[in-house]
Amino acid sequence: MNAYSHLAIGIGLVAVGALVTTPPIVHAAATTRVVYFHAVDAKGDFVTDLTAADISVKEAGQPRDVTELALATEPCHVAVIVDDGGNGLMQMPVAELINAAGRAEFSISMLNPQSIRLNDYTSNVDLLERSIGSLVQRGRLERDSQILADAIAWTARDMLKRKLSRPVIVTLTNGGDSAEREVAKDVLSELYASGASLHLAHVVAVPLGEVFIDGPVQSGGSSTVVSSTGGFAQAMTAIARTLAHQYKLTYVLPTGVKPGERLQVTTTRPRVRIVGPTRISSKVQ
Asked: For every residue of 141-196, which 3-state class applies, written as one string?
């Protein structure tokens, strides 16, 4: 065997080796998305017996396949943000929310005037009572709508980073929000990316900017006008009942299809209305 024969054999071995180590072709998996909603009948009572066959989903105007629908069982993670202007009147409403909610963990923050987180997410009653006890009268605080908007944006980013189950932001304010348009746009983007629903309780005639006009509706939350401390407490009870009757909806996008931002969830059940997000992030985490 001459030198050229050895060279030919060597080349053949390399070729065989290359065939053996060629990586397999991996096909892209379909994208799965999860959203939470609740359903009410014509009387406003909660509907709790929907099935996947009753639900239709469109994302960016295109139908999507529903793969699962069930009553939500994961614990909620509820971030409570209190903007009371220093009057100390939000203790009872916050306590009502925590007492009325079922399986949930709460963080409590207050504006003083900067946002201060009094406790991280917990279900520990003693710790939550201490935080509620800090919501005392503190004197008249200078208002800055930017601080409240920033608190919501920071909370949403924190929720996304931690990948918390069933994220919810509850804001109680007697000052309102008037963040500039570009600021509001960024805050809403953070909110939709987190998957959190924004629930708002506010007094009559406070200024409401885009964050508090669009955020509750488009995230699947709620907005309630109140006129007293008792009104705030009633709003918190209503929010807790909503969270206790949520569904978890899972649907998939066709392989290779990019996620959209506009979401429409409907039901074929007569006289039943779906209350859920209409805007979601186009980025799947």
From this structure: CCCCHHHHHHHHHHHHHHHHHHCCCCEEEEEEECCCECCCHHHHHHHHHHHHHHCC
